[in-house]
Amino acid sequence: MRRLLTALLASTALLGGAADAQIKAKKPEAPPAVSKADKAAHDKYLTLDTHLDTPTHFARPGWNITDRHEVEHDFSQVDLPRMNEGGLDGGFFVIYTGQGDLTAAGYEYARNYALRRAIEIREMLAGTKTGFELALTSDDARRINKAGKKFAFVSMENSWPLGEDLTLLTTFHREGLRMAGPVHFRNNQLADSSTDPKGKIWNGYSPLGLRWLAEANRLGIVIDVSHASDDVVDQSVALSKVPIIASHSGPKAVYDHPRNLDDARIADNDGDQPIDAAIEEGGPAARFSTLPVKAIVAALIEAGLPASVSLTAGSFVCNHVAYLVGGAVERNPGLRGGFIHVPATPDLVPPGSSVPTMTLDELERGIRLAIMTAVRTTTDARVPGGSIH
Ligand SMILES: [Zn+2]
Predict the structure, then answer these.
(1) DSSP 8-state class, residue 350
(2) Do 160 and 65 fall into the same domain?
(3) Burial level of 365, CB count in 10 A (0-12/13-18/19+)?
(4) pLDDT at residue 13 is higher than 70
């Protein structure tokens, strides 16, 4: 594997997994050109995005959805000016909670966290009277759109915050909740996740999860199977009295992305080009980073270094290294590991190239800061950081 990319420089010692920090280069990508005909066709439709992670920004001091932001600066993807520009009429604003402990304390933390997020969504709506309005039905969406405003549905990604108290679903329904997914990256009290490295524990829904599904049906909350295991998807289809949704999923046949796999687009200098080869025979499908990647990203941005959370380490060299680091961490209690992508330095790209770069000084500063943050932070920041699901 001599074609080790320069991007790996300095990063392999520290670093892998299903959530990585990514030190991003500074050049924002130019938006692709849209023809007038395409724009006109798009404008004719009522458009919605079924998964808007934006509520994570609502409580940030000084962050306002009516202002324009840049994803490169604060990794926010949606605000009113950009919705207008992109022709997005509304969508589901998500109450997302990253999976934690299935204990009384864990449930209490998650419940409070999710309730606060629900309130923040309502506060955003109340604070931008001319911009957005809460939608509870599809008729609402049409009416709000006609009135020149953006419609905002509320959804829940990961129903861990409900704990074992399904009456909370009514509480959230009263706050506007109209779509909910049972589970996120890891199995919880309700259902199996599609990505828990420990594999399934419930073979689909748990007994409580089955009651959750029935209660969501009864209240009129759409079941969202994104992040859920295949068994959960099958059981949802079989048991739900109304259609379900995968609000942000991709078909496996088009983009299958197990982590325990080497798949090289080009051969390396030794002519080695593995295709769909297991990195570790019998190894788990995925291994997760144990670094506080979100705290690292926040520290990098604070220091003026563009960075974001990445959910993929590529399909060959980076993923291979990331996966093996994860294995080393598993075998050595107390060790922590993760993966950081870094951009090339300017001298490595041809003059005039549009490939984004970062100086060696900046890279060194970024990696030092990432290490220091990892050393100082034992519990990662509880903020969603994903940009591509
Ligand atoms: Zn997601």
Answers:
(1) -
(2) yes
(3) middle
(4) no
Per-residue model confidence (pLDDT) at position 16: 33
> How close is the Cα of 105 to the center of ligand 1, in Å?
24
Distance 56 CA to ligand 1 centre (A): 13
Which of 187, 208, 239 finishes a domain?
Answer: 239
Max Cα–Cα distance, the chain, nearest Å:
63
Place of tokens 């005039």: 352
| Cα-to-centroid distance, 184 and ligand 1 (Å) | 7
**What is the average pLDDT score of the chain?**
84
Q: How far is the CA of 251 from the centre of ligand 1 (A)?
A: 14
Strands (E), the chain: 20-23, 48-52, 90-96, 132-134, 150-157, 177-181, 222-223, 307-310, 340-341
* Owning domain of residue 283: 6-25+259-376
CATH number, domain at 289? Answer: 3.40.630.20
Look at residues 256, 257, 294 and name the one whose alpha carbon lies nearest to residue 386.
294
Other CB atoms within 10 A of residue 18 CB: 22
Whether residues 340 and 371 share a domain: the answer is: yes
- Token reading at 54: 């934006």
Residue 102: DSSP 8-state: S
Check whether residue 194 and residue 264 sit in a common domain.
no
User: How many A from CA of 91 to the centre of ligand 1?
Assistant: 15
Give percent of the chain above pLDDT 90: 48
- DSSP state, residue 20: E
Phi, psi of 223 (to 5 degrees): -80, 125
Mean pLDDT, residues 46-64: 92
**Ligand 1 mean position, distance from CA 185 (Å):** 8
Ligand 1 centre to CA of 54 (Å) is 12
